[in-house]
Amino acid sequence: MDQNRVAVVGAGAVGCYFGGILALARVPVTLIGRPAHVDAIAGHGLFLEGLRVNQHIPVAATAGIEGVRDAQTVLLCVKTLDTETTARDIRPLLAPGAAVVSMQNGVDNVRRIRTASGIEAIPAVVYVAAAMAGPGHVRHSGRGDLVLPQSARALAALFESAGIPCRLSPAIETELWRKMVLNCAYNAISALGRAPYGAMVRSPRIRDLMRRAIAESVAVARADGVELSEEEMVEAARQLGDAMSAATSSTAQDIARGKATEIESLNGYVARRGAEAGIPTPVNETLCALVRLLEEA
């Protein structure tokens, strides 16, 4: 096993951003993504445009899942729709002791990975505003930090060595739900309104809608045994809108590209868990239904 190499499975915006920053710090990285991106990166390197970097970064790239072989660290950045399939695909290729890190949206990916493949993945909470601006070209417009479990000190040190802020948390489930609540407040509305986060928080009507989505999500989190404060989450949403005012959600980006979204793992998950727990979630149900309608159209 290569004691340094990182393989990024699902080299879209998130994977390319973090993989690119690691590669810039001379960490050996292999990006595994779609052929168009791989061809562009092979020809010119990964173009990372944004707050910290504006340059082409030399980095290995392949369209084949074999790229995970012998990597010490595997960053799983695929859409939640592909969680089980990808977990099963990488399982026979993993080197002994390789760390698989779920850098995905949602709160249940680690369980789904374990059920599908037996892999004990490490959950990571990702805060970054990034979008693919073209083949091999990622545009970064906000943040770029991670939250990891307290037990993942070596992994955190790897990211920190590349200048990626990484906080260790003793309550990673709470951190996952905090991100989930923010996703439920922002993702669908950004997509349906074709609006960046800053415009959303400046609108009184949208702020009220976001507050109601947050209240429902917090209630479902509590039913799952995770205690969150509704008022703290409303404030966190406001701060996120200020910090990433130019960002649009990953759901909005998927809709713009005609791709399937992760809405069933976000507002849809809250609606389903709410129904199971007897908690009304009309806002989340409606947002999920409208995004699905937009997808189908």
Task: Describe this entry's structure for a reader.
Helices cover 48% and strands 19% of the residues. It is globular, with a radius of gyration of 18 Å. α8 (204-223) crosses α9 and α8 crosses α11 (267-277). The model has no long low-confidence stretch (mean pLDDT 96). β7, α4 (109-117) and β8 form a beta-alpha-beta unit. It is built from twelve helices and eleven strands. With 297 residues, it is α/β, with parallel strands linked by helices. The strands form two sheets. It has a six-stranded parallel β-sheet. Strands 3, 4, 9, 10 and 11 form a five-stranded mixed β-sheet that branches. The chain has helices spanning 13-24, 35-44, 83-90, 109-117, 153-161, 172-193, 197-202, 204-223, 230-243, 250-256, 267-277, 282-296, and strands at residues 6-9, 29-32, 46-49, 54-57, 60-62, 73-76, 99-102, 122-123, 125-134, 137-149, 166-169. The chain has two domains: 6-170, NAD(P)-binding Rossmann-like Domain (Rossmann fold), CATH 3.40.50.720; 173-296, N-(1-d-carboxylethyl)-l-norvaline Dehydrogenase, domain 2, CATH 1.10.1040.10.
List keywords for this structure.
single chain, 297 residues, alpha/beta, Rossmann fold, N-(1-d-carboxylethyl)-l-norvaline Dehydrogenase, domain 2, 6-stranded parallel beta sheet, 5-stranded mixed beta sheet, globular
